[in-house]
Amino acid sequence: MDIATITGIVVGIGLIVGAILSSGSLTTFWDVPSMMITIGGTLAGTFINYPMSQIISVIKVLRNAFRKDLMRPASVINLLVSFADKARREGLLALEEEAENTDDDFFKKGIQLVVDGSDPELVRNILETELAFLEERHRSGQGIFTTMGSLAPAFGMVGTLIGLINMLRELETPENIGPSMALALITTFYGVLFANLICIPVAGKLAIRSEQEVLIKELIIEGVLSIQAGENPRIVEEKLKAFLAPDDRAMLQTERDMRKVGEHDGEIF
Question: pTM for the complete prediction?
Fold first, then answer.
């Protein structure tokens, strides 16, 4: 599980609760009707805006915000280079068993297409089409949380307006104005908190995860096509290095050394 996401949520809630307790009571900020207006209104608006199928699928996408980092690009490059070396020495058919030991279905599909003797252009088209639909699913999940982030403060304001209307109806009793005003502002507090601590950050994390996964998939596509073309492993490595930032390229040798140690010890990565 991604520690940064959990830490951010826990620390954010903890600091806000601590600030409230230092100057008041949590019960002052707890109001069920205000929460129903803010959270319920946000969810209702989201249901209106998106088809049910997309809303259900976002639960699966949401896991990306809490899972550990994906396989590092350096690890993918070294794996592809090792596959290129084996293909040159033993032929493409030797990669079929190796591909079965990988956990990535996208990588497995690419190698299987190559082993089956598919045309290189067909291989690229199939993998790029799958990548395009992957990006579309990710954008859909990000869009849902972005929409919720924009709706929550608005429904918080709706709750505030409702509270103000009720307050104005009781101007004849001045002692009720202060508590009524405080109650009216709680919905705005809920809306801003829900949007800026949950919805917008989760949408941002999903966008980052999507970029990372797309990079990995693009590496796999180029690597698989290079293997199919029978390119020298050194050429494959240099080609794939172009996808990495300069600082990340230094990790290649470290990853390679770790892989050699693992293979020497009989471990499978």
Answer: 0.78
